[in-house]
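INPUT
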Amino acid sequence: MTIHLEDMQVIYQHPESLLNVNTHYCPGCTHGVAHRLVAEVIDEMNLRNDCIGVASVGCSVFAYNYFDFDFIQSPHGRAPAMATGVKRVHPDKVVLTYQGDGDMISIGTAEITHAAARGENITVIFINNANYGMTGGQMAPTTLPGQKTTSSPKGRDVEQAGYPIRASEMLATLDGAGYIARRSLHDPKNIRLAKKAIRTAFETQVRGLGFSMVELLSICPTNWHLNPAASTRWLEENMLPYYPLGDYKVHPALKDLKF
Amino acid sequence: MPLSGTIVVDENLCKACELCIVNCPAQVIALDKSRITPRGFHPASLYKEGCTGCGTCSVVCPEAAITVYREKRTEKESNA
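OUTPUT
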């Protein structure tokens, strides 16, 4: 059977806001999925010329090489502080930060907490992969109890290293937050739900309803020493019970939102 | 009768993570061991007929390397 592509309808193609370049991410890393979802939402909302991103330090440090809109790079953990400045100077622009767990909830805990407490009108995409990916898989604040990493070879000992931080629950207690949700990127259904959450987060900002954050549970096949398919199963079995998915804070003005 | 579809994988982007292969509902994607990409991976590709153009592979692809096509519905089908 000969297939003529020009006679067929395009169901999916590379988003315009994502550059057609090779990323430095490991095969299977869901950073790529998160990048794609953000780019798709920017395309859908037609915000490409009105969007400024702030990249963090970590695996996502080169995000500015992959997105086709304005991007700046912040010092480690300070993306929400820089985003605050950008948003206050350009209140008509949409400002997002793209941060990992080592960046946002370790060194940058103060910045993110106060940005949320002030109700800064920015959107945060938070990637939670339960370790420090870029530096070689060390224990992060989000590492699960008993999880083996390069700096906890016998598993995370809660007596010594304490307990993981559930960032979404923590930030949802703050009055400045308009939309806080946790989603996962381990299967097609959850990826679709994650895209809706990212869309809602951007709508929150466009409507001026305060701080918005989407936490995305991600896989890290290289540092978990599993192949990508096994990593998605590990996430489902181990991370989902500790980090329940759901909306932790939804501004009442967002209830009627439908996509 | 499901509509037929097809996928085109950008071999410059594919990193052979196999997530499209394990998530394909029709199980029609495999790594093409006879080809090698500029980055040194065997690219994912359709290896038999049966693709319905559902787009699930493009949803899970971390590299946005997959373009999905589906045949157009005829007037009769879309009215039914």
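end of record. The longest strand of chain B covers residues 66-71.
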